[in-house]
Amino acid sequence: MFVVATAGHVDHGKSTLVRALTGMEPDRWAEERRRGMTIDLGFAWTTLPSGGTVAFVDVPGHERFVPNMLAGVGPVPAALIVVAADEGWMPQSAEHLAALDALGVAYGLLAVTRADLADPGPATARARAEIAATSLGAVPAVAVSGLTGAGLPELRAALDRLAADLPSPVLDDPVRLWVDRSFTVRGSGTVVTGTLGAGRLRVGDELELAGADEPVRVRGLHSLGEARPEATAVARVAVNLRGTPRDRLGRGDALLTPGRFHHTDLVDVRLAGDPAADLPATLTLHVGSAAVPVRVRPLGPDTVRLRLARPLPLLVGDRALLRDPGRHHVSGGVRVLDVAPPPLARRGAAAARAQVLAELDGRPDLAGELRRRRLVRAGALIRMGVPVPTAPGRDRPAFAQPVAGDWLADPGYWRVLAERLTEEVARHAREHPLEPGMPVEALRQRLALPDRVLVEALVRPPLRIHSGRVGAASTDALPEPVARAVQRVRAEYGDRPFRAPEADRLVDLGLGPREIGAAVRAGALLRLADNVVLLPDVLDDAVRVLAGLPQPFTLSAARQALDTTRRVAVPLLELLDRRGATRRLPDDARIVVT
Ligand SMILES: Nc1nc2c(ncn2[C@@H]2O[C@H](COP(=O)(O)OP(=O)(O)OP(=O)(O)O)[C@@H](O)[C@H]2O)c(=O)[nH]1
Ligand SMILES: [Mg+2]
């Protein structure tokens, strides 16, 4: 199946032509038939001479309904432009063509209708010239009459040739089904329709709906009026959703493959059309079947930042258009360059950003994204529309290899981080000589990293991680039962760090002299004396507490301040003396060495 949207000025015979080609009524509403005018989108289909199917999205031509027209053409890559022989090129002929051009529609046909009323020659010539100057280029033209049927066989043949020209859809792509209609069917619940441009849908699939916390489930699928277990792009589809109230979704919403799209209300885009400086501060962004008010912030001559009134599932490279509804003016097409752009807080940030954007063309570029973002999750990039080769192999460049978890890093930045980590650990060791290394969390903050696993991945010999700290490697690793015992000491004594387990508690914990020896060698325990052990990271805190005492201080004052016993305080102070953190005076009082 292929899908074509009509386009053209009001009353030029779009619906009549669709009706003549398909035998179906595109004007669904009684009001449309009473007024003889299309108001909203209509849908019809027929079989072509080749046996293929063409589905039409019939749009209204009246200027008041241009937003409906845009919702129809947004997700459809081919157009049937209709111009009446007796009226010729008219304002909405031009506005519709500008919209197709802005969206980059590259495939189309011209039908000059009402050829029974006037010579189609002049209208054909003018329309072909106008169309040739757009993304559609030179298109075949057919003169027809919806009334007499003249030219319809030629038009069908031309539609068949158009179908053959269209690129084949990518069936492995995620689904982004822009909803163009939603309604309730008694007994079935909510049904939405749309043009499936890529991917496939199956009954039972779970899909994501922006703004809904829960996934929605496909209960039934229809295409071309028939129930089907599966629909593959390109197709017009009607999707029956289980348990989704009708008021939860409507035109402009999208049903999505879960986890594959980034919902964004901030995008940087390149303009094709009016220069950035000429745009009003507010416009309407049309993409897919959605129309969202946006605030425009010019950045470069042809680049702007758009703040959307509500988030949309946009991808790098998406085409959209900006329109000024007040002036009936299509400001031009936009190409999405970045769906997760950095904030522009600092002075000069906007100018710097404009320079970055000047280099971008909307083609997803993994190496460039890594260079700009420095650190980013593969999943986040995929949701922005940047493919990441996930399977190891020849197709995966080295920089696409995660550094930790699914984190990707710019190789240059990663090397800088590794050097900074080494420096930070060395500095910490100088400033805190009594600590057995720098806490991973402190390093994470220091290096401004978003995830601890990144710190862990940056640690290389001779550094190593031990008990949540990064320090120089000690020779012995801790046997499993000892590690468990140390954990329990941590759990029990973490909040009264200067109390040491009594000898019989050590026995209970399974910490005999050999185990204690191993734990001490591994830096997991600190031995003050036989059978007197503390956690290894308490010495700095002890010095801090002691420094808070009036100097010099006595053993008894130290014992009380540390909330401990003589059994601990005596060897602890002796250790601090040996390490030069405290000094013992001739009268046995001590001072903290600063
Ligand atoms: N004589 C003649 N009349 C036609 C032809 N095509 C359409 N008409 C008439 O032109 C009028 C408008 O036709 P529609 O098909 O409703 O035009 P439309 O482009 O769908 O109009 P909107 O949807 O409102 O933009 C109707 O009265 C049709 O009967 C044709 O080929 N010959
Ligand atoms: Mg119509």
Task: Please characterize this protein's 3D structure.
The protein has 594 residues and is an alpha+beta fold. It is 30% helix and 29% strand. The chain contains 18 helices and 30 strands. Helix 11 (440-446) packs across helix 12 (452-458) and helix 17 packs across helix 18. The structure holds guanosine-5'-triphosphate and magnesium ion.
Low-confidence stretches: none
Strand content: 25-35%
Summarize model confidence as the mean pLDDT: 91
Bound molecules: guanosine-5'-triphosphate, magnesium ion
Estimate percent helicity: 25-40%
In order across it, which strands form the biggest sheet?
Answer: 2-3-1-4-5-6
| General shape | elongated
Radius of gyration: 35 Å
First-last Cα distance: 81 Å
What profile does the largest beta sheet have? Answer: 6 strands, mixed
Helix/strand layout:
Elements lengths: L1 E6 L6 H9 L7 H6 L6 E6 L5 E6 L7 H8 L4 E7 L6 H12 L4 E7 L6 H13 L8 E3 L8 H14 L10 E10 L3 E8 L3 E3 L3 E4 L6 E8 L2 E3 L1 E3 L2 E8 L11 E3 L5 E12 L8 E6 L2 E11 L2 E12 L4 E6 L4 E10 L10 H10 L7 H8 L1 E3 H7 L22 E3 L1 H21 L6 E2 H7 L5 H7 L4 E4 L2 E4 L7 H14 L9 H6 L4 H9 L4 E4 L2 E3 L4 H9 L7 H7 L4 H13 L3 E3 L5 E3 L2
The structure holds guanosine-5'-triphosphate and magnesium ion.
The site of magnesium ion (MG) has 4 residues, from helix 1.
Put the structure in a nutshell.
The protein is an alpha+beta fold and 594 residues long.
Keywords:
about 600 residues, 6-stranded mixed beta sheet, about 30% helix, 30 strands, alpha+beta, binds magnesium ion, 6-stranded antiparallel β-barrel, 18 helices
